[in-house]
């Protein structure tokens, strides 16, 4: 493990990992790196913040969120993010162009539409179509369940998980949602009183244990946010004042 200077995408205290050993990051380091990587991959700053939220939520519940986000960014790299958005119609949020939905855009938009007719309706189903790296959608579903008193069930090819079954969700979420992409359906029913406050608060894990390869790839994306040095910037560096007192 070594520290490399002059990388403006990372804090001075954040190490670089160059071996095959597990690479632990604090939750704050994971959020910062994931957010900058998402921005470097072409997301708006607002959506990049949502990506950081999703990765951090997974980290706090014992899942390697940075690696899942890294896989999604690699899959979407070079594509127009507008092509990865859902078509918003009641009960059908599949991609308008028949492509794979981005879980970050999808989740953030679901939260934005929580009180609108096109959004959540108790007793109804919503087809999401094929979603890339679907585990990244899960944090937004628990946020939705916090915002509105509904129990949300997410069904994919490997099974289903529900926001009112905390322990089972934690145990099964990687198994059911950890694949590269999957066709998903949401269903909603009114939540029981005891399930109206999901477990979105309170961290269960303090650090993200990811891999050196993931950190290197996320740093590569994050470096795209840095403006390269030029002759003009070098010429303007430093002060023109004398420090001779």
| Total helical segments | 8
Count of individual beta strands: 6
Distance from first to last alpha carbon:
42 Å
Largest sheet report: 4 strands, antiparallel
Name the helix and strand elements from N-terminus to C-terminus, one letter apiece: EHHHHEHEEHEEHH
Write the layout of secondary structure elements.
Blueprint: E1 22-26, H1 27-40, H2 45-60, H3 65-76, H4 103-112, E2 125-132, H5 138-147, E3 150-156, E4 159-162, H6 166-177, E5 181-190, E6 207-211, H7 212-222, H8 231-235
Antiparallel strand pairs: 1-6, 2-5, 3-4, 3-5
Helix pairs in contact: 1-2, 1-3, 1-7, 2-3, 4-5
Structure description:
The protein has one domain (about 20-200, about 205-225). Strand 3 (about 150-155) and strand 4 (about 160) form a beta hairpin. About 35% of the residues are buried. Residues about 1-5 and about 195-205 have low confidence and may be disordered. The radius of gyration is 20 Å and the shape is globular. With about 240 residues, the protein is of the alpha+beta class. The strands form two sheets. Strands 2-5-3-4 form a four-stranded antiparallel sheet. Helix 1 runs antiparallel to helix 2 (about 45-60), helix 1 packs parallel to helix 3 and helix 4 (about 105-110) runs parallel beside helix 5. The chain has eight helices and six strands, in the order E-H-H-H-H-E-H-E-E-H-E-E-H-H. The termini are far apart.
């Amino acid at each position: 493990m070594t520290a490399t200077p002059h990388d403006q995408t990372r804090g001075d205290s954040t190490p670089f990992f160059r071996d095959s050993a597990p690479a632990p990051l604090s939750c704050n380091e994971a959020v910062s790196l994931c957010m900058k990587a998402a921005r470097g991959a072409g997301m708006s700053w607002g959506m990049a913040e949502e990506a950081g939220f999703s990765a951090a939520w997974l980290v706090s519940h014992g899942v390697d969120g940075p690696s899942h986000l890294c896989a999604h960014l690699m899959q979407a790299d070079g594509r127009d993010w507008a092509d990865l958005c859902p078509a918003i119609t009641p009960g059908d949020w599949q991609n308008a162009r028949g492509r794979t939905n981005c879980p970050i855009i999808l989740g953030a938009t679901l939260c934005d539409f929580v009180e609108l007719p096109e959004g959540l309706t108790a007793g109804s189903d919503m087809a999401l179509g094929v979603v890339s790296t679907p585990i990244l959608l899960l944090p937004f579903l628990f946020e939705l369940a916090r915002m509105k008193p509904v129990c949300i069930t997410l069904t994919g090819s490997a099974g289903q998980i529900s926001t009112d079954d905390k322990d089972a969700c934690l145990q099964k979420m990687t198994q059911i949602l950890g694949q590269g992409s999957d066709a998903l359906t949401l269903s909603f029913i009114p939540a029981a009183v005891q399930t109206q406050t999901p477990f979105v608060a309170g961290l269960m894990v303090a650090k993200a244990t990811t891999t050196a390869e993931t950190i290197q790839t996320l740093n590569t994306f994050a470096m795209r946010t840095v403006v390269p040095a030029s002759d003009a910037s070098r010429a303007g560096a430093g002060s023109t004042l004398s420090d001779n007192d």
